[in-house]
Design a protein that fits this description.
- The complex is a heterodimer.
- Chain A contains 21 helices and two strands.
- In chain A, helix 12 crosses helix 13 and helix 15 packs across helix 18.
- Helix content of chain B is 60%, strand content 1%.
- Chain B folds into two domains: 253 residues, Transmembrane di-heme cytochromes, Chain C (Fumarate Reductase Cytochrome B subunit, Up-down Bundle), CATH 1.20.950; 100 residues, no CATH class.
- In chain B, helix 1 packs across helix 2, helix 5 crosses helix 6 and helix 9 packs across helix 10.
- Classes of the chains: A mainly alpha, B mainly alpha.
- At the A-B interface, helix 1, helix 3, strand 1, strand 2 and helix 12 of A face helix 2, helix 4, helix 6, helix 7 and helix 9 of B.
């Protein structure tokens, strides 16, 4: 080591000097934006070509924790990745590497090494990184689950292509097709279920980019636990984001009244009032997913599982009403229909009756009351001197 | 009695006044806890529900008030039976054609078409209307309330649709009742003239003269007071009380059944939370870097190795030591795994592209000491691990074997 040092004294001195300048400049320019990489200084540590000279060799490994850590980078993929196209250099992320030999890596495992490296993302992705700190993954991680996803588990920094529009920051439609596959890396069984659902099948088989992917319900970066009471209570409004969207629903011939009709019916009224007052409290009243499913949402007219069929719906009812054994019970719920002379006519005519009966009765009462007021008013005017009428 | 106009007459005995109070309180409670459920989206409703501790406790209050009203109704029926059978009082609350006439006359009087108002008896048409509206409302609300409270039992006899229809009627009727109370009762009994008789139980002669002149006349003429002799009353009571007790038990049982017939309609079972194993990573688990297509330990040397076919390299690892030479294995290995830096680039002065260059060593001196792998820098570096272009343990073993066997070129 000392031999090497002596031989490279000049370089080491230069590197030290440059490093000092870089640190100074870095301190002055924080925080950086995703587009503007940390400023580069002439003569600074290795260019990407220098790194790739070694690291694009196939099958390169380093030993970490007794296991080989692959350290080969696909140069082509990197250059077409968003980092590559934005000219983010290897050393922008691998900030501790300034030349060769590299500083020794002290990591107990490949995972441990990833965990050491990923905070580098926050140099540029401040907002996203901050959001992840309030995520279910981060909480699982803090609770000791080292498998909980960090940035690089979803976004391979060497191959990640652009996901959002550079100017608007909006998610690119094409990116939506990739999202479920990303989550599937860790949630493979849920992905398998999702693929078969009405949403997932449309996305994976038809390439429909408008159906919900994982993040439309679960969010991105600050993903919240879907098993909390507040998440459950908010589900009707979550589904309503799309299912009350006229333009979106028109494509599938679906009703946009599903939220209105739900809130107007027994269960929805409770959940609505509950959600407004006590979003954190548990309620056993059903939300959308209790009948329609979560990742296994099927069309309501699906011959096997569709809940438009009373026998299938009764099974859902029985989850909470085990004593309900007849399919007539399913009609106690309006199934999102608005009563009309054809559907649920009894409900329609009861409503119609009161629509007429209430104004008729009250109107009659009002007429009489007003006539009484009128008489008293007139009597007061004409009989001011006379005995006052009680 | 001194002044005839201040003389008072009993209008409502204490029991009726208590009954009124009970109905007033339960009705108001039902309205206040029911309307927020009907108008569940209104912010007033939501705030009110919040004050009462949530929708569940609001419903508990609503149901409790409903029970009170049912008990009040049962009591009312028993009192009616007593008055009808034991006391044989006149059915002054029964509506008649005269009430319709009175209403018309009162209206004509109000609009100035008549000089005098109609003369009415113990209960005016306004009071009868309110009473019978209450009866109608109680029947509707009780029946529809039962259906919603016990939907599973209900749909055993009736189509399922009656449950939402019951809810519609319950809400419509509630709205009608509350508004009618506000318009009719509030005006007729509180605004027009504050009628205190339901609290004091009494009315002055002057009030009687204005509002119930026919009753006053009946009282004065003695028609109203049909006092029976005590013996007859006692006899009737002895018949009525046992019947009333049975009726009371029957009605109490009805209320109990009403309330407790069903368990899982309102208080549903505990929610079954499905347990899902969320973390099921795909295999192979992806990593930021390129994982070799075959596990590294088995990686054969790339085909670019010109000097020797890989198969021989692999097989030689189990072959005798003498089989390993620079030409047939090590040169190719170094070229592939080390060549980028320690080829023509000669990083740190080490060039491993030819046997001669390799034996020359690096700036720091020789890296291969034939016959002594342990002291060869190349082996020390590789065995320490973490070197870029790290050899696999098997490859290191080959190099060690080769050096220990004399680091032969051929």
């Amino acid at each position: 080591m000392s031999n090497w040092f002596r031989a490279n004294r000049a370089q080491v001195g230069l590197v030290g000097l440059v490093l000092g300048v870089v640190i100074l400049l870095a301190l002055m320019t924080l925080p950086a934006t995703p587009v503007a990489a940390a400023p580069r200084v002439q003569g600074e540590p290795p260019s990407d070509d220098t790194c790739l000279a070694c690291h694009q060799q196939e099958g390169m490994t380093a030993q970490i924790g007794g296991q080989p850590l692959p350290i080969t980078i696909n140069a082509e993929k990197f250059s077409s990745s968003v980092h590559g196209t934005e000219k983010i250099a290897c050393v922008d992320c691998h900030t501790n590497i300034t030349g060769f030999p590299h500083p020794q890596v002290i990591a107990s495992s490949q995972r441990d090494f990833s965990l050491q490296l990923y905070p580098t993302c926050q140099q540029c992705h401040v907002e996203q990184y901050a959001k992840t700190l309030d995520s279910v993954h981060q909480r699982a991680f803090a609770a000791g689950n080292k498998n909980a996803a960090v940035c690089t588990d979803c976004h391979n920094p060497h191959t990640q292509t652009r996901l959002t529009d550079k100017n608007t920051g909006k998610l690119l439609l094409g990116a939506r097709l990739v999202i479920p596959q990303t989550c599937a890396k860790c949630h493979s069984t849920i992905y398998d279920t999702y693929k078969k659902s009405v949403h997932g099948a449309a996305l994976t088989q038809e390439g429909n980019q408008y159906v919900p992917t994982c993040i439309d319900c679960h969010g991105v970066h600050n993903i919240q636990s879907p098993t909390t009471n507040s998440f459950r209570n908010s589900i009707p409004f979550l589904c309503a984001n799309c299912h009350t969207n006229e333009a979106l629903m028109k494509q599938y011939g679906l009703s946009t009244n599903v939220l209105n009709t739900y809130v107007a019916d027994f269960h929805g009224t409770t959940v609505k009032m509950f959600e407004e007052n006590f979003p954190d409290q548990p309620t056993n009243k059903p939300v959308c997913t209790d009948c329609h499913g979560t990742h296994d949402i099927f069309k309501v007219d699906d011959p096997n599982a569709g809940i438009a069929f009373k026998k299938n719906l009764l099974v859902k009812c029985q989850q909470c009403h085990p004593n309900a054994t007849t399919t007539t019970f399913t009609d106690a719920w309006l199934s999102h229909y608005e009563p009309s002379p054809r559907v649920f006519p009894l409900v329609y005519f009861v409503n119609l009756f009161y629509k007429i009966f209430i104004p008729a009765v009250l109107g009659g009462m009002l007429v009489f009351v007003l006539s009484d007021v009128y008489r008293r008013f007139m009597a007061r005017g004409t009989q001011r001197k006379g005995a006052e009428q009680k | 009695m001194s002044d005839p106009l201040t003389r008072t007459y009993e209008r409502f005995p204490l029991a009726r006044r208590i009954e009124h109070l009970v109905m007033l309180l339960s009705f108001t409670t039902l309205a206040m806890t029911g309307l927020p459920q009907k108008f569940s989206s209104s912010s007033i409703s939501i705030a009110f529900v919040s004050i009462l501790g949530g929708i569940e406790s609001l419903r508990t209050i609503h149901h409790t008030a409903a029970i009170v009203m049912m008990l009040g109704t049962a009591w009312h029926l028993l009192v009616f039976g007593y008055l009808a059978y034991v006391r044989r009082t006149r059915f002054t609350m029964l509506p008649s054609l005269q009430d319709a006439k009175d209403a018309w006359l009162a209206f004509m009087y109000n609009i100035g078409r008549l000089k005098t108002p109609p003369q009415m008896g113990r209960y005016t048409f306004e009071e009868k209307m309110e009473y019978w509206a209450f009866v109608w409302g109680t029947i509707i609300m009780g029946a529809t309330g039962f259906m919603m409270w016990n939907p599973i039992s209900t749909v055993k006899l009736l189509p399922g649709e009656v449950i939402p229809a019951a809810k519609a009627a319950h809400g419509g009727e509630a709205l009608l009742a509350v508004l009618a109370i506000i318009i009719w009762h509030l005006y007729g009994v509180h605004i027009k003239r504050f009628n205190k008789s339901m609290w004091t139980g009494k009315m002055t002669e002057e009030e009687m003269l204005h509002e119930h002149p026919l009753e006053l006349a009946d009282i004065k003429s003695g028609i109203a007071d049909r006092s029976e002799d005590p013996a007859t009353l006692r006899k009737r009571r002895s018949v009525y009380f046992p019947v009333a007790a049975v009726l009371a038990l029957f009605m109490l049982g009805g209320v109990y059944g009403f309330v407790s017939a069903e368990k899982t309609a309102l208080t549903t079972t505990e929610r079954q939370v499905p347990t899902v194993v969320v973390f099921v990573p795909q295999t192979p688990t992806s990593a930021p870097t390129l994982t070799p297509t075959v596990p590294a330990t088995e990686t054969p040397l790339p085909t670019s190795t010109s000097s020797a076919p890989q198969t021989t390299t692999d097989t030689t690892s189990v072959a005798p030591a003498s089989a390993l030479t620079w030409d047939n294995a090590i040169g190719g290995l170094f070229q592939t795994k080390c060549g980028t830096c320690h080829g023509a680039a000669a990083t740190a002065g080490l060039n491993l592209s030819t046997y001669a260059d390799a034996m020359k060593g690096a700036n720091s001196g020789p890296v291969i000491i034939p016959g002594d792998a342990a002291n060869s820098l190349i082996v020390q570096k590789q065995q320490a691990g973490g070197h870029p272009g790290q050899l696999t343990p098997e490859e290191i073993a080959q190099v060690v074997e080769w050096i220990n066997a004399g680091a032969l070129e051929k």
